[in-house]
Write a structure and sequence with these properties.
The chain is mainly beta and 387 residues long. A hairpin with a 7-residue loop joins strand 8 and strand 9.
């Protein structure tokens, strides 16, 4: 075929010389009939492997707390921006980078308030990690990352805005998953470092008719957490105030060796009104001698509906209860303002608006279990756009 093509092409030009006939080999015939790659098909570009995603949240926030101002009220407007890029380097390795607004010294909030006379707002690195998936049963991540998709936690225990620093490994066997994690809290050149070690085992079971269940438990060991308390008391670490019990020298009364157990149930037989119910229990086995008034906590949440399409609605009710040393204060839910010492309720209503955006209305009513701090009512009105 190639020889015939060359002969005809040479015949179109008086200057061309017709090449001698070339015997057609069997291999030439096979190559001619095999499908050839499309010459118009573009090779994969480097940017085809990059996934850009993020979100923007605009918020109006209103407080009612005795003594917070001359009329016991406060209002403010805030914004949160979280752009990120993620790319698969290979089939088994992913790299991610995310930037977030907010005070870099505050690990539990990405919000920036509208104040300061139009001053510029801070943007910081919130994620920078490598994720490896060498086999179907092993997945591990190193760097600074958001762990909430890897383990099962509540926002009472772990604020939604926290990104950890260290490593997490996930091992899978059928319906079972086992997570191990090692998080670095504070490096000290003159003393031993502070860190957190933990693990979690859970399984997923169920069917379409009865729904899916996730049942499991875990254990967290905070090593030298006093170093984190010292950062907060000195003002170097912002965010939650210290709500764990301290002695006269501002030293933690308890160790923090926290066991937790949980069960969640999801029922999606109705696409319009899926249901999810969660209950978690906590016990700080390191709070020795303090009694039940200081070392236990629980969390309950019921969610009904979906909000991902225009006009769809979701309702959610949550119950927070944590005695002061049941949880370590620093990464606990910040919107309650009570951190680890909280007795409160939360109600959410979400309404789908246009593609990838929705309105969110959240009401908190919280008070402390142990310390003397005024009750708080807090309303958040959000418009969230996911891109």
């Amino acid at each position: 075929v190639q020889a015939e093509y060359d002969r005809r092409r040479a015949g179109e030009s008086p200057q061309a010389v017709v090449p001698p006939p070339v015997p057609i080999q069997e291999a030439d015939v096979v190559a001619a009939v095999e499908p050839q790659p499309d010459k118009d098909e573009e090779p994969e570009k480097w940017y085809d492997r990059i996934d850009f995603k993020g979100d923007l949240r605009l918020r109006g926030e209103f407080f009612w707390v005795d003594g917070i101002s001359s009329n016991d009220r406060r209002e403010r407007f805030r914004a949160r921006i979280r752009p990120g890029i993620y790319t698969d380097i290979t089939d088994w390795m992913e790299v991610g980078l995310q930037l977030r607004s907010g005070d870099p010294a505050d690990p539990v909030s990405d919000n920036e308030s509208f104040d300061g006379g139009f001053s510029l707002k801070a943007i910081s690195i919130s994620e920078g990690f490598a994720r490896f998936r060498p086999t179907d049963w092993l997945d591990f991540t190193l760097g600074k990352f958001d762990p909430k998709k890897k383990w099962v936690v509540t926002d009472m225990q772990w604020d939604d805005d926290v990104t950890v620093e260290g490593a997490i490994q996930e091992l899978s066997y059928g319906p079972l998953k086992f997570n191990l994690y090692q998080y670095i809290l504070e490096e000290d050149k003159s003393d031993r470092d502070a860190y957190m070690l933990g693990g979690q085992l859970y399984g997923k079971f169920g069917s379409d008719s009865i729904g899916s269940f996730t049942v499991g438990g875990g254990f967290d060991n905070w090593v030298r957490p006093q170093k984190v308390v010292d950062l907060t008391l000195s003002g170097k670490l912002k965010g939650n105030r210290v709500t764990n019990l301290l002695d006269d020298q501002d030293q933690l009364v308890s160790d923090f060796e926290i066991a937790n157990a949980f069960i969640t149930w999801s029922w999606k037989k109705s696409d319009r009104w899926p249901v999810k119910f969660s209950i978690f229990g906590y016990l700080n086995t390191g709070a020795k001698g303090l009694g039940k008034d200081y070392d236990t906590g629980y969390f309950v949440r019921l969610q009904v509906g979906d909000y991902k399409k225009k006009g769809q609605m979701m309702f959610r009710a949550s119950r927070y209860y944590s005695e002061p040393d049941a949880l370590f204060y620093v990464f606990a839910q910040s919107d309650t303002t009570m951190a680890s010492d909280v007795d409160g309720y939360r109600f959410d209503f979400r309404l789908g608006y246009v593609k990838k955006s929705y309105f969110n209305f959240t009401w908190y009513h919280t008070k402390t279990v142990y310390s003397l701090f005024p009750d708080m009512d807090r309303l958040q009105v959000d418009y969230i756009i996911v891109f």
